[in-house]
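re: ur question from earlier - yeah i can do the single chain one, its not a big deal. heres the input i used so u can compare w yours
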Amino acid sequence: MSGYILKRLLLMIPILIGVSFLVYFIMSLTPGFDDPARIVLGMDATQDAVDNLNATFGANKPFFIRYFDYVIHAVQGDLGISYRTKLPVAQEIIRRFPVTLKISLISIILSLLIGIPIGILSAVKQYTALDNVSRVTAMLMTAIPSFWLGLMLLLLFSLKLRWLPSSGVATWDGYILPSISLSIITMGLMIRMTRSTMLEVIRQDYIRTARSKGVPEQSVIFKHALKNALIPVITVAGTNFGAQLGGAVIIEAVFAVPGVGQYILNAVNTRDLPGVLGSVILLAITFSMINLLVDIIYSFIDPRIKSIYAK
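and the output i got, formated as tokens:
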């Protein structure tokens, strides 16, 4: 298992290089990339001041040299200085990342706690009214845009009922509306995925054998069927958890949450290259670690996978 983890960690290196290069290249195509000093100093600054600051930034160097310099500094933990806030990007991200992580964690936990039980119940009660309602509800959940739901929740619970704060996360209840808005799509996916995998598993021969031996239906479902049905569900949950970290950009903008998502949005709007690159690299690292964690969880659910890793 340790060899597998080490192999996956090494594979993260080309992934991060590819992500950083792609973002760096895309940002190089935007107007003003080759003249960051003008963005920092403004249009009223003298040309001499702009040239001196561009020389400090290394903006007059060729593209690949600038990218190579950035990678060397990033490996050492230096993600540059934000053009907008004049603060180290690493410091800004570290300060904001816990907020985004909390929202994403609450969101994925809500999706699992609600989506999996409904999916199991829908599979066990196939073709009943309960199954039809859960399927329609799941389809609606996956079709509702998160930002639209966030705005509706904001109007209802903040402006109309005044139960929850409309912006910020100064108190614990500030996380409720952003987390619900972010979880709705994943919750619908959990319902559909759990239902389909449970239906596939409960039709297997070993499930019929367990029932023929008189094993209680509750044990058949939760002890025999659910464990095997959870493997693809965990894959979807892990992938969506990583996606939620990046998808929090819009939700954080709707609820004015001071997280990484809002930081990325502000950095893009102000052409803050160090801010964009540092945030994207952090999210890529987090997403890769989540995928690694999902693979490790597999081994505890399915012993066959653990035996493959042990080779």
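The chain has two domains: 2-75, 89-309. not sure if urs matches, ping me
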